[in-house]
Specification:
The strands form four sheets. An eight-stranded parallel β-sheet has the order 6-3-2-13-12-11-10-9. It has a three-stranded antiparallel β-sheet with strand order 1-7-8. A two-stranded antiparallel ribbon has the order 4-5. The protein is globular and about 65 Å long. The protein folds into two domains: 373 residues, Malate synthase, domain 3 (TIM Barrel), CATH 3.20.20; 109 residues, Malate synthase, domain III (Malate Synthase G, Chain: A, Domain 4, Up-down Bundle). The protein is of the alpha/beta class and 502 residues long. The two termini are 24 Å apart. It contains 19 helices and 15 strands.
Length: 502
């Protein structure tokens, strides 16, 4: 790559592969998005801090009376593109070459290339992911297994590609504009849109994104401004960038209509947030002693019903949260509730999800399911599981968080632990629950009262079990300890993890 354009600094040395992605024009495009979003990002940071201060004093999120007209109105989102009408089986994958190929060829209707939860943000991973996305659209994508020498290339029937960038609240410190890090979301989404939006539209699809970490109407409005600006800069038809919004924040559950309204010319669906949503409940309300969750963070059916009702009322698709292990019960529950599709975590799960939806949903989707029975009361959305705090859960959280963080700082976005896929969302929830239980001195079912020395002893045992393995477990243990014993909750572990990335 030639010298970076004025005001733009790429910190790492740019390799040959990176130069294909980080062209001068591509960098200028990302910089334009960054500069246009600076004020909005500052406003978002300020609003989040103000809300958190209220929550720490005992306040609870609720529906906003001043936006009732939006919730009660009969407006619709833009009509769905043809290739987003049927999403009965979706698969989430890292944008690595092997995993992306397997996901695209899996038989799923939708492939979500995930920079947010499935990709450890090493520089090589991010650049490699962008190269692979470019190769998908030029049909030049293939992978040769180094052990079997088997060649895998794109099949004739591919899943529709969607890309999930990291959050607008996160920084990408290795690309700076005017001396400041760009938003990680604008790095991921901006590069993908610049290189692929026009070719995707030319191939009867489109530039589709899945937006994470939106907490409010204000943030949705900021994203809509970014999408409109991107379309203008690239000369795309208005509304051609389509997005699914992941409801992965407790506050967002109370503003689904408002979020969809701000994005109504771009939004195609809502997706349940799963572990990220459970994590956000602790991130927002963890300082409140009456809000201690006892189990794995599942939140019952209130959120699912309201999400389906909101999406279908506005003409959008509703996707169930990702199944991390056995897809059959998850898909059966999803189709019964009225979801239009089920996210899966592995190609082996796709056929099972497809069969269940094929059997029970003969139409491309079931947006005709209105879910008028769904409740929209504050108390229902704030229900959390109380009861026994099990020592087995405490120790299991330590073990999985340790293994997950080690994988993250070693450059692997996901790890398989006891047959269950663990990603960034799982790590975040587990370390958050550890912090909350320790913060409030929970007494476990074994009679042990939690305190730092108990945690440190259990962490040492978990570390000892992994000592024979190659890797970076000591660094992971140190990071996990700092997160769990912090006086104030650390809202996002990834900036700390990025400092230790191998």
């Amino acid at each position: 790559m030639a010298k970076s354009p004025k005001g733009i600094e790429v910190v790492p040395k740019v390799s040959r592969e990176a130069s294909r992605v980080l062209t001068g024009d591509a960098l200028r495009f990302v910089a334009e998005l960054h500069r246009a979003a600076v004020a909005d990002r500052a406003r978002i940071t300020s609003l989040r801090a103000a809300h958190q201060a209220l929550f720490d004093k005992g306040a609870l999120p609720d529906f906003r009376p001043e936006t009732s007209a939006i919730r009660d109105g009969e407006w619709k989102a833009a009509a769905l593109p043809r290739d987003l009408l049927d999403q009965r089986a979706g698969i989430v994958a890292a944008p690595s070459r092997k995993e992306l190929l397997a996901a695209l060829n899996s038989g799923a209707k939708i492939c979500l290339a995930d920079f947010a939860d499935f990709t450890s943000p090493s520089w090589n991973n991010l650049i490699d992911g962008q190269v692979n996305l470019m190769d998908r659209w030029t049909s030049a994508m293939e992978h040769i297994d180094p052990s079997t020498k088997k060649r895998v290339s794109l099949s004739q029937r591919l899943a529709t590609l969607m890309v999930r960038p990291r959050g607008l609240d996160q920084d990408e410190p290795r690309l700076k504009v005017d001396g400041k890090p760009v938003a990680a979301a604008l790095f991921d989404a901006g590069l993908y849109l610049f290189h692929n939006a026009k070719v995707a539209l030319a191939k009867a699809s489109g530039p589709y994104l899945c937006l994470p970490r939106i907490t409010s109407q204000t943030e949705a409005r900021a994203w809509n401004d970014i999408l409109v600006h991107a379309e203008s800069l690239l000369g795309l038809p208005a509304g051609s960038i389509r997005v699914t919004v992941t409801i992965d924040d407790l506050c967002a559950a109370f503003e689904m209509d408002e979020i969809a309204y701000e994005l109504r010319n771009h939004i195609a669906g809502l997706s349940a947030g799963g572990m990220n949503y459970a994590f956000s409940s602790i991130r927002n309300l963890g300082a409140q002693k009456t809000r201690i969750a006892a189990d794995d963070g599942s939140h019952g059916t209130a959120l699912a019903g309201l999400l389906i009702r909101t999406a279908h009322r506005r003409g959008m698709i509703a996707m169930a949260a990702m199944a991390r292990s056995d897809v059959k019960p998850a898909a059966e529950d999803a189709v019964r509730q009225g979801f239009d599709g089920q996210w899966t975590a592995h190609p082996d799960q796709v056929a099972g999800a497809l069969k269940i939806f094929n059997d029970d949903m003969p139409t491309p989707n079931q947006t005709y399911v209105t879910r008028d029975d769904a409740v929209s009361r504050q108390k229902d959305l704030l229900l959390h599981h109380e009861g026994v705090k099990a020592e087995a859960v405490f120790r299991g959280n330590i073990r999985v968080a340790l293994i997950g963080i080690e994988g993250w700082i070693s450059g692997r976005g996901t790890v398989l632990v006891d047959g269950i896929m663990e990603d960034r969302a799982s790590i975040e929830f587990r370390r958050a629950q550890l912090w909350q239980w320790l913060r409030h001195g929970v007494t476990l079912d074994s009679g042990v009262k939690l305190k730092p020395t108990v945690f440190e002893a259990c962490l040492a045992e978990a570390l000892k079990q992994e000592k024979s393995a190659d890797g970076h477990f000591k660094e992971a243990a140190a990071l996990l300890k700092s997160l769990c014993l912090a006086k104030e909750f650390v809202a996002d572990f990834t900036p700390l993890a990025m400092r230790k990335l191998i």
